[in-house]
Design brief:
Length: 113
């Protein structure tokens, strides 16, 4: 840091020049994390604490809801497979038997005519 002292009147003017002050503003790039960290100074502590608690509650609620929906889908799917799949197979077999009987009956009646 460069310190320049130029006196104006009775008081000397002290100006601290940081290395970042020497770089033009157009060339400075700030990351998003640096910007978010800079917002910390903008909001008072109770607001930051409240928003932190709200974010934590939202995260835990979202995780709970995700796990609940995931388990509900698993239970529904496995129950449907265990209960409905044997019934569907049985119905398919009965329909196949009926189709065979119809085909056999059609051949019998065609032969008599």
């Amino acid at each position: 840091a460069v310190v320049s002292t130029q006196s104006t009147g009775n008081f000397p003017a002290i100006e601290e020049v940081d290395d970042l002050d020497l770089i033009p503003d157009e060339e400075l790039e700030e990351t998003y994390m640096e910007r978010i960290a800079g917002l910390k100074e903008m909001f008072p502590s109770p607001v930051r604490t409240g928003s932190s608690h709200l974010l934590g509650a939202t995260k835990s609620s979202s995780l709970w809801l995700y796990n609940f929906v995931r388990e509900a889908i698993w239970i529904t799917t496995t129950s449907a497979i265990i209960l409905a799949l044997p019934l569907a197979i049985e119905v398919t077999q009965i329909q196949a038997q009926d189709d065979l009987k119809k085909a056999r009956n059609e051949k019998l009646f065609e032969a008599k005519v």
